[in-house]
Design goal:
The complex is a heterodimer of chains A (265) and B (785). Chain A has 265 residues and is an alpha+beta fold. Chain A is built from eleven helices and 14 strands. Chain A is 33% helix and 25% strand. Chain B has a seven-stranded mixed β-sheet with strand order 3-7-1-14-11-12-13, with helices on both faces. Chain B is built from 20 helices and 30 strands. Helices cover 29% and strands 23% of the residues of chain B. Classes of the chains: A alpha+beta (265), B alpha+beta (785). The complex binds flavin-adenine dinucleotide (FAD). The site of flavin-adenine dinucleotide (FAD) has 32 residues of chain A, from strand 2, helix 2, helix 6 and helix 7.
Chain lengths: 265, 785
Amino acid sequence: MYAFNYHRPKSLDEAAGLVAKAEDGKLVAGGMTLLPSMKLRLASPSDLVDLSSVDGLKGITVSGKTVTIGAMTRHVDVHTSADVQKAIPALAALAGGIGDPSVRNRGTMGGSVANSDPAADYPSAVLGLGATVETNKRKIAADDFFKGLFETALEPGEIIKAIHYPVPDAAAYEKFPQPASGYAMVGAFVARFGKDVRVAITGAKDHVFRVPEMEKALAANFKADAIAGIKLSEDDMLSDIHCSADYRAHLVSVIAKRAVAKAGG
Amino acid sequence: MDSTFGEKFGIGQPVRRKEDQRLLKGGGKYTDDVSIPGQAHLAFVRAAVAHARLKGIDGTAALKGPGVLGVFSGKDMEADGIGRVITDAALKDLSGKVMFRTKRLAMPVDKIRYAGEPIAVVVAETAAQARDAAELVQVDYEELPAVVTARQGLAKGAPAIHDEQPDNLCLHYENATSEAYDAAAKQAARIASIELVNNRVIPVPMEPKCCVADMDTKSGRLTFYAPTQGGRRVQGAVAEMLFGGDGDKVRHVSDNTGGGFGTRSKIYPEILATCYAAKKLGRAVKWSGDRSETMVSDLHGRDQVDRAELALDANGKILGYKVEMLANIGAWVTENGARLPIDGGGRIVGGLYDIPVLYFSCKAVMTNTVPTDTYRGAGRPEANFLIDRLVEKAAREMGIDIREMRKRNYITSFPYRTQMGLTIDSGNFAKCQDEACKTIGWDDFPARRKQSEARGRLRGIGMTSFIEGSGGRPEETMRLRFEKDGKLSVICGTFSHGQGHATVYSQLLHDKLGMPFDAVSLIQGDTDTAPEGAAGTFGSRSSQMGSMAIIGAANIIVEKGKKIAGHLLQAPPTEVKFEGGNFVARAGSISITEIAKAAHDPAKLPEGMEPGLDETFVYKRANGRDDMNYPNGCHICEVEVDPETGHIEILDFAAADDCGFVLNPLIVHGQVHGGIAQGIGQALTEYLVYDEETGQLLTGTFMDYGMPRAHHFPDMKAVFSPTMSTNNDLGVKGAGEAGACGAPTAFVHAVLDALRPLGVEHIEMPLTPNRVWQAIQAAKRKGAA
Ligand SMILES: Cc1cc2nc3c(=O)[nH]c(=O)nc-3n(C[C@H](O)[C@H](O)[C@H](O)COP(=O)(O)OP(=O)(O)OC[C@H]3O[C@@H](n4cnc5c(N)ncnc54)[C@H](O)[C@@H]3O)c2cc1C
């Protein structure tokens, strides 16, 4: 780790100002992604702006058909929240499958979503549920949020405040973990809102994506079998030592099918 | 005598480990817990490429870094006359030519031979300053093509790792010419053959590599702390390299070591370099390696490409066995790099099967990878994997039941002289197999398979029988010293780093001397107190070597105790009996604790007797290599494969082990469980990948290198099926490595059994989901063609 300046602001404005002022400022939430890369000397921010004392970033509220989760809410809190378990059990279950207990006790939803790791779990829920990402500047629809490998619509210094999740009629998340890291080699989040269905896949391409063919087939018939024949092209699938592109493309079909079955289809 | 004597704390009892309270509460003292006031910190500059000529190292910029005290490279060490570690193994080929041996300076001066090789050190006031400055060291490489696999190493025109050995062949060992085997093959009704990879693994002890070297300039003595499996060996090496062989100038301390697995039994360049820096600067220097650094600098394990052939008669009885191993020993010929496949594994190359004719060839090949050396099992897992995979394959090809096939070929009469010239003293392999089958419920497997089918899963069952050769170096020394308060200290040659010696040795002394269990304590891990000739703990040797040395010392104590008791009870020593911890004569009885106290009081001793009860015993195996002990067992694994994803789940594991007399079943079960987990790691998760072009290790963090985790394992069923070793008075056989010998084979057999209906015949370890799925697809394509 290289030396850096550390700040712990109390408000969002102050935080945004500190990042803007710094030569190469970075927000830090749970630190579960940022700190390891700093320790490996792969990241070397000049300033770390710690969001842990900023007011109003933590907590879960349910109002009507929306669950709002503060950016600084930890994975463990989402996993164990009775409200989330009742409204969107698939989201609570997803949170419980991230990393290990130490990671879940520190890692936050905002950190995970902002990071847009191609193999992270949360982005699939954000996109699969059609959530809205609220920042200190604006509201961004999930469909416009994830842009690429570790790339989102967030502008430099823009801070996620909370994420608003619409409550689906049925949803499920299914994950096939990478054997070493436990991140998703392929993860599928499937949600049904009335007749509309959203399918979001993580782990397979450079960022989370939807599968319109599957969504259409499932809108017509919300059954696992309805998508059994849908195979994605392996052309833009990730390929690495753990999973070749053809295997990933295959896994997408299998894991999506299982997610549908889990969601009652 | 107390009527419960021996029952609760004696040998054979499942006594809980007395060391656990301290270790589990964080009371262990590991190397990184050591800090010397005023210490400086060291960081390594490591080779960024796998193969290059080293044109120059420029530390000018680094030296200007804040707090930097020194930058040293191999050139400095050479200029200061630092010695080189010379391969001590001296195996020969059939013509009598001795193997190629390397002379390794802690940091190279001429060439880089693997990515991650240490090439310079930076010492600074703080660890961060040292790391920062290490990045400023300029290294001038003239890159050479990298050689990664053994096959690449032997290819015509391959670049030489060591200029002195242009063909990269350290040794081509053969036990004999192949004539006898060829003749046996001519007589055979059937030939079965197999080709497979025994995959390289990273040892990954929980404790990363580290060293604190404390130079006392006044006395000229260096004390260094580093995790080991026995300090004398590393102390000796440091003394030889840095102090002209003056052992008195060097002290090694290692209170606790966080896992050894063989990889911690070696002297490492990082340790030598840290000690060198401390000596050079006249100051304490600390180096704390991190995980990734440890993964490219700890000696790796396994790495063979093997081919083997069995000549069989019509009933499946083995007539001859032919083995051709290619062992990738990495960039340097370390202590056991070449010795491991050839002797460590070679000693039991035929497994527990009766092999009348053997041709065993092993080429040990040098490559641009981290050197390989001892890793739990040390050659035996590889040898067992090969023969048992082949025996099973032959059975399937001949339509013989796999259990029956093994029984037809087991060694059944003892002592048995192997083709490698060893004498296996005891065993009952068929009984072990039956015990394992009973434990897992082999006969009911078809019903379980049906249940899995109903869930869309393929279920498989796999077995293996294996044998080990334990004991390691044929000599160990232990000292028993009674303190003034009557308590007993065991001053060890062995070194417990997870094995529970404090518990087992206390049980032994409870048994032999009637010592209260709590009145015995262990003194280990300091070369100032370790007896001369202390060897250490590796090769599953402590139960035999350590225990026998303790018994030897205890016997001397009893004899001396009889003289003291006789003196106090006014009886001739010949009439004093020692029973259950008491010296008994007609006039009365005195406990050993009282005798020990009396021994410190010259007034209570016979004329001319030295005060104290303090005895050392050197236990030597009479026939050295031959009277090792031969742990063996039969392991059975049951798995379910998800044919859609290639995911494997282990549902059951039964181990019937013959570890001879079991000193503490709780601890031995722990060893069996741990060994199995490690074996499954190699076979299921530990996918180590080198880029075959650049020689870079692609799996250098836990994000990519998969460790086995608790969720991979069912409750394991471990049972004992002992036969006593006749090679030591206790009847014990080593227990530390058996699990790693059996688990990979049983597991792979189970998965292949599950996938047989799909036409899959072979998958290389580790059986990652990717590989399993690809194998299924390949079989489908083959079936369709
Ligand atoms: C061992 C291990 C296993 C893991 N396994 C998984 C897994 O299985 N699945 C999975 O999905 N993840 C996994 N993770 C990642 C984990 O979920 C991280 O916690 C998460 O990705 C980042 O969250 P964080 O709060 O720690 O963010 P940090 O590390 O603090 O920050 C990550 C990035 O997000 C930015 N950031 C943080 N908060 C905000 C905000 N409010 N607004 C804008 N930018 C922000 C930071 O500047 C930084 O660039 C694992 C991590 C570890 C260490």
